[in-house]
Write a structure and sequence with these properties.
The complex is a heterodimer of chains A (544) and B (352). Chain A has 544 residues and is mainly alpha-helical. Chain A has 3 domains: 170 residues, no CATH class; 172 residues, no CATH class; 127 residues, Rossmann fold (3-Layer(aba) Sandwich). Helix content of chain A is 45%, strand content 5%. Chain A starts with 5 loop residues before the first helix and ends in a 31-residue tail after the last helix. Chain B folds into 2 domains: 292 residues, Fumarate Reductase Cytochrome B subunit, CATH 1.20.950.20; 30 residues, no CATH class. Chain B is elongated and about 105 Å long. With 352 residues, chain B is mainly α. The longest helix of chain B is centred in the first third of the chain and has 29 residues. Chain B has 15 helices and 2 strands. The chains are: A mainly alpha (544), B mainly alpha (352). At the A-B interface, helix 1, helix 3, helix 4, helix 6 and helix 7 of A face helix 1, helix 2, strand 1, strand 2 and helix 9 of B.
């Protein structure tokens, strides 16, 4: 399959098909869907009905009693989640959510309007669980559950990135993300999963991170990045692994040590921790902050997340520091203590050993966000920063969906940015595309595979479009974010839509700007790019 | 007939049918049925249905605290938070009340509404731009409809009390401030008609909305339009005996129903449509009214990290514990210099 050109994808038609939505069936065109999960992964994590199947097949080899399983699964979830029952009952189909979804804006497919995507599930609820639906059928949006409905669920529930933008605009707060997770749970209950997500989950379950790095490989990767730090800055940034009695356990998503540009953010963490002489350790076991498990089910999310507290208890650390990651922080914020079921009393209320700040806002959770931690350091003048070392960077900031709409961390990263960049180098994207209204990268929630690239480029279109606006208007050349999935997916997206803009983590910028005592002269940034003014007489004033 | 046409036609036919049923029924001297039995039955269905539904919602727990956070979370004391942040990402129950009040009384979320347009130049297709306009019309239409409806319902309370409470009389007076018509012309009458026509018109005019709108969405719009128009007809054009109507209503209220003479069939049609609305309410999307209060993305504070939320059905799950992991990788970990709980030799000895 070849990826269409940007000018082709940018021609989005918002004209719905002539036939009604119940009659139109999804078109599984290569490039728009993720591959079926290999049975191996299902076996690793005891998932039901492992089998070799392909999305393109006519026969998906569903278990014989699949309908019963799905309907019982729906009944069970209606009993356990008030959200589901309520969201099924109260939608008025006002359509306020319609043009808020990046997948609708990018594909023009009306079933990507959150209201209609929800209706794909709701129609089954109405048919089997409401009197009016049983009696009036299609007129009230009810329809029989058959295999084509399941195919439709599979297609469209994996065209939702659980970003919650619709739920900000919904007058009743109906949250497609919630329905997507529960819908994916029901699909998984009859053995329908996507390979990209399941492989990551199984690897993380078994080895410790989505990328399936063994403990020794994990150590090698991090040690390599520490050596890179020394090569570029002349500063040794030693790392300890699984060290008992350390004060802080640091957990970050694997995206930060797996590939560029995430790795530069990890180098930034190491520089920062060395600068502070922090008593911290990595764990090769709880080596993953991200959690693809939660993308496919609440239970799988918990099964992966449980490792973090388990390891913190074993290592007898005082508290946990979390790296830059989007969905990791939605989970840490809104699920982790609830999954654990009680206050993790083996941990202490986090206190910054440098500033003495007590993180009262984490007094139950016992986990601090790296941006909170860094912002507090800057606020207390504990970091010597040279913003000129980021003078080659003109930045805009992408609020990640999960930290925005599932937590609300907006100011801390901006505060850091303003302190590590020269004045006038930070530009916001248009107000309707940032903060709580931010647009998704288009590839989150386990669909950042390669085989669905066309869909990813469509889903990321609104984000990229806003980036291009600030690029053209202000000469922005970097997109900052506090999310490892963003750092994995946005470079591909921008390469496609706005190739002039690169993606960076915020702690990478901190790493660039940090001035160590007795350091060698810094001539490049962490990416080996020459700093502004290096090799010139005057320096510093150069404009693009 | 295509999907949209079918759904529009059925809804419209249903409302016209209901009108005909009431009209013909009253012509056939079924005043007792339409004046007494149906209203009682409708009220019964309304309350029974709502209570049933609310209990049903309440019986499903809220396993996770999942507010949609739409503002800066409370974190370090010096991190700035505006009043908007505090309301859109409430830190406590008190702020949640504020958020809910704003949502219910001012339609806060709908007020955020934007409309996105794809602006493209055929000559440079790759330069296509998405423009996100602020778009308040839906908010205006919705809030105009709901408040007009509320005021009209309150105005009708004068039929339920003898003497008419002063507050109701005052409300009617304010509503009828612009007295350029006899009898006093109510502003809310025109507002609700315009708002309903807008809410209906947007569903018909926008192709994507037309694509997703069901008969069950058109039906309440047509039904309320029917109620409003019969009311307006009665008030301004085909007058009915108001005293008799009040007698009928007071009879219902005091549980001593009477059917006074002189009430026009138009009134019975009006009353019947209201009864249908009441009965339809708890089985339809109109449940959004009580439902919004239960919405877990709105009615919970964003304080997860400092106030534990307990899931009543939380159960232990199978995960990969550390010792199993070490057993799997012990030798390699040891070789790489990663600390282990049991040294490889000790582990081997233990196994033997």
């Amino acid at each position: 399959m070849s990826l269409p050109k940007p000018e082709e994808l940018a021609r989005v038609s918002y004209q719905p098909p002539a036939r009604g939505w119940m009659e139109v069936k999804p078109d599984f065109r290569p490039g728009t869907y993720c591959n079926a999960a290999s049975p191996k992964w299902l076996e690793w994590i005891d998932y039901p009905y492992p089998r070799a199947w392909s999305v393109a097949d006519e026969d998906w080899q569903l278990p014989e009693n699949w309908k019963e399983i799905v309907l019982e699964g729906m009944e069970d979830r209606l009993a356990r989640f008030r959200s589901l029952k309520l969201f099924f009952d109260i939608c008025v189909r006002c359509g306020a959510c319609a043009d808020k979804c990046h997948f609708f804006l990018g594909t023009g497919d009306p079933k990507n309007m959150p209201v209609l995507r929800a209706e794909l599930l709701r129609s089954v609820y109405k048919r089997y669980f409401t009197r009016l639906g049983k009696a009036l059928g299609e007129l009230v949006g009810a329809r029989d559950l058959d295999e084509s409905v399941i195919r439709e669920w599979f297609f469209y529930l994996y065209q939702c990135t659980i970003c919650r933008r619709c739920s900000v605009f919904c007058p009743y707060g109906i949250d497609m993300a919630e329905m997507t997770i529960l819908g994916r749970e029901m699909l998984a209950s009859i053995g329908l999963n996507i390979d990209w997500a399941l492989a990551s989950v199984a690897q993380c379950y078994d080895k410790g991170s989505h990328i399936g790095a063994t403990p020794q490989a994990f150590k090698d990767m991090i040690d390599f990045l520490a050596e890179e730090n020394e090569r570029i800055t002349g500063i040794k940034t030693p790392v300890s692994y699984n060290r008992k009695g350390a004060e802080i356990l640091f957990v970050t998503p694997s995206g930060d040590y797996f590939a560029d540009p995430g790795t530069f953010t990890l180098m930034g963490y190491l520089l920062l921790f060395t600068y502070l002489d922090l008593d911290w350790t990595f764990s090769t076991y709880a080596a993953e902050g991200g959690n693809f498990g939660w993308f496919i089910s609440h239970e799988m999310g918990k099964r992966l997340n449980a490792k973090i507290y388990h390891e913190a208890e074993r290592l007898k650390v005082k508290w946990i520091l979390g790296g830059e990651c989007g969905h990791m922080w939605r989970i840490c914020n809104q699920y982790m203590p609830t999954w654990y079921g009680q206050v993790p009393s083996f941990l202490e209320v986090p206190v910054s050993p440098i500033t003495g700040t007590v993180f009262e806002n984490a007094r139950v959770h016992k986990m601090v966000h790296i941006s909170e931690f860094t912002a507090d350091l800057i606020r207390h003048n504990k970091l010597k920063l040279d913003p000129q070392r980021n003078a080659h960077i003109k930045l805009t900031f992408h609020d990640s969906c999960n930290t925005s709409r599932g937590m609300g961390i907006f100011e801390e990263p901006r505060y850091i940015i303003r302190n590590v960049l020269p004045e006038g180098h930070f530009f916001e994207m248009p107000p309707n595309t940032i903060r709580e209204k931010t647009f998704c990268c288009g590839s989150s929630s386990g669909i950042n595979a390669n085989e669905n690239m066309e869909l990813r480029m469509q889903g990321g279109f609104p984000r990229a479009n806003a980036v291009r606006y600030v690029h053209e208007r202000y000469g922005v050349n970097h997109l900052g974010c506090i999310c490892a999935l963003d750092r994995a997916t946005l470079p591909t997206l921008l390469q496609y839509w706005v190739p002039e803009v690169e993606v960076t983590g915020i702690t990478e910028l901190v790493g660039n700007a940090l001035v160590f005592e007795g350091e060698i002269e810094r001539t490049t940034d962490l990416r080996d790019r020459e700093l502004v003014g290096v090799g010139e007489q005057e320096g510093g004033e150069e404009e693009e | 007939m295509n999907f949209a046409q079918r759904h529009i036609t059925v809804a419209l036919a249903a409302v016209l049918g209901l009108i005909a049923v009431a009209y013909v029924g009253v012509q056939g001297n079924l005043q007792l049925l339409f004046g007494v039995v149906v209203p009682y039955l409708a009220l019964l269905l309304f309350f029974e249905g709502i209570i049933y539904r609310v209990i049903k919602w309440a019986r499903s727990p809220v396993p996770f605290k999942i507010p949609t956070t739409a503002g800066q979370v409370k974190s370090l004391p010096w991190v700035p938070r505006t009043l908007g942040d505090k309301l859109d990402n409430p830190e406590s129950k008190a702020w949640v009340i504020g958020r809910m009040a704003l949502e219910v009384l001012a339609f806060r979320s709908l007020f955020r509404n934007t409309r996105t347009e794809l602006v493209s130049d055929p000559k440079y297709p790759e330069k296509a731009r998405l423009v996100h306009w602020s778009y308040k019309w839906l908010w205006l239409g919705a809030i105009a409809f709901h408040y007009a409806f509320l005021i009209i319902v309150l105005r009708h309370l004068r039929f339920f009390f003898e003497p008419t409470p002063q507050a109701i009389a005052l409300l009617s007076e304010i509503d009828g401030f612009w007295q350029f018509f006899i009898p006093t012309f109510y502003l809310t009458d025109i507002i609700i008609v315009l708002a309903l026509l807008y809410l209906l018109g947007r569903r018909l005019a926008n192709a994507n909305l037309r694509y997703l709108t069901l008969a069950s969405d058109y039906f309440p719009l047509f039904l309320i339009l029917g109620i409003v128009s019969t009311g307006i007809l009665m008030r301004y054009f085909f007058k009915t005996d108001i005293t008799a109507v009040k007698q009928l209503v007071m009879g219902l209220v005091s549980l001593k129903p009477v059917i006074p003479a002189g009430i026009s069939p138009l009134f019975y049609v009006h009353l019947f449509l209201v009864c249908v609305l009441l009965a339809y309410f708890p089985y339809s999307k109109l449940l959004h009214a009580p439902g919004v209060f239960f919405s877990p993305t709105r009615n919970l504070p964003g304080n997860n990290r400092w106030e534990l939320h307990v899931n009543p059905w939380n159960y232990p799950v199978k995960f990969h514990p550390y010792m199993e992991y070490e057993d799997q990788f012990r030798d390699a970990m040891y070789e790489a210099g990663i600390p282990v709980e049991k040294e490889p030799e000790a582990a081997v000895a233990e196994e033997e």
